[in-house]
Amino acid sequence: MSERCRGPRGARAARAIRGVVALAALLAGCATHPLRVASSGDYPPFTSLAADGARQGLDVAIATRLAADLGLTLEWVPLAWPELAAAVVRGDFDVALSGVTMRADRALIGRYARPYALTRAVPAIRPGDATRWRSPADLNRRGVRIAVNAGGHLETVARQRFPRATIVPVADNRLAEALAEARIAAIVTDTAELAAWPAAGPRPLALAPLSVDDKAPLLPPDRGELAARIDDWLMAREADGWLDAQRVRALGESAARDDAAAARQAVAAWVRLRLALMPDVAVAKRAAGLPIEDREQEARVLARAREQVPAAPDRAAAVYGELIAMAKAAQQRTPERPGAPPSLATLRAALARIDESLCRELAHLPPGSLPEWRAALQQTGAPPPSIERLAAALAF
Q1: I need a surface site. Which of 2, 159, 199, 375 has the fewest CB within 10 A?
Q2: pLDDT at position 23
Q3: C-beta atoms surrounding 10 within 10 Å
Q4: CA triplet 382, 110, 307: central angle to 5 degrees?
Q5: What gap in Å lies between CA 286 and CA 385, rounded to an integer?
Q6: What phi-psi label fits residue 241: left (phi over 0), alpha (psi between -120 and 50 degrees) or beta?
Q7: Is 293 left (phi over 0), alpha (psi -120 to 50) or beta?
Q8: Which of 243, 263, 234, 255 is nearest to 367 (CA)?
């Protein structure tokens, strides 16, 4: 009997059973080496250090239970945000769980497991400065100093969105202390971190976010087996409700979602990450003198999707047919630009890693209506007609 015939309760039960089976298989295959988890300890509510040195936060809870369920000893690896990329390349850890944002540049050097939280980047000011700074545009001026955590995703956002201002990187994410200085006009933070501060602390300046960001475990590129295990574990913890309870405790009621909504959010995140690589793909093709359309590569991608979703190969092919069309449209919109892009081989390897996780989602996708998929895919930034066609391919 199909999940559609069983109804929502039967589908949820089936997913929970799959999670238990996957976890049992996972435990059977685990070695006894420790699980090395990288964490900055400076990014509440995902990870922070208490006065006694104890770690706390959403990612600490996730890492602690993940290691326990895998039957592994948990080993914390200190993480400095400016060193994250180099640490991934060196393989200094098995997985980074520290509120890591899914980004195209990181996908090129590593691989992500399933996203589990969503935040929005915002500029924030002192409460008493509300009449001085009325919009983000007011901050984008010469002489305005904006503080941001050094080396993290938000520094990239700040430099992109406030090119005329002076960006002041702050070590150890000490943004509250930075904003206490009169010479700092604002900080760039995110909605999760902002909510963790006292009510009398910084206040958001913009209604529209500077960026919408998915948080996900980041692994070195050769940790494909571990990434698959973490994907299965996260699906199981969504199915049994544990992860949502932890998410709500850390991020508030607005972060609540059931396992079906979490699956739609994950698919949307993978689609968005995939599309984020397309400008580099376009530049790499032009540099190599290749056309945007590559029918042989498209056929390989479709065949791979069908193979990786054996229970629903036609549906996977339909979804990837839309993804290929979206990718070509994004490449065609990419303007000429100077500089050497990543190689096409590097880009395609990154896309293959993304597709492994996306196809895992497609293989266990819960039922979802067209309006639900349409709403979830809005975050991809794709044109509305593309979103409509992809939503139709995903809905059942």
Answers
A1: 199
A2: 47
A3: 14
A4: 65
A5: 27
A6: left
A7: beta
A8: 263
Outline where DSSP puts E strands in 271-390. Answer: none
- Please report the pLDDT score of residue 196 as a whole number: 85
CA distances from 40 to 56, 152, 167 (A): 11, 11, 21
Q: Hey, how many other C-beta atoms are within 10 angstroms of the C-beta on 332?
A: 11
- Which portions of the chain are predicted below pLDDT 50? 1-11, 19-31
Three-state DSSP class for 299?
A: helix
pLDDT of residue 15: 52
- Cβ–Cβ < 8 Å for 41, 50: no
Task: Give pTM, 2 decimals.
Answer: 0.87
Q: How far apart are the first and last CA of the chain?
A: 15
pLDDT digit string, tens, across residues 21-67:
444 444 444 446 899 999 999 999 999 998 888 999 999 999 999 99
* Residue 14 confidence (pLDDT): 52
Q: b/e map of 347-362 (b: 16 or more CB within 10 Å)?
A: bbebbebbbbbbbbbb
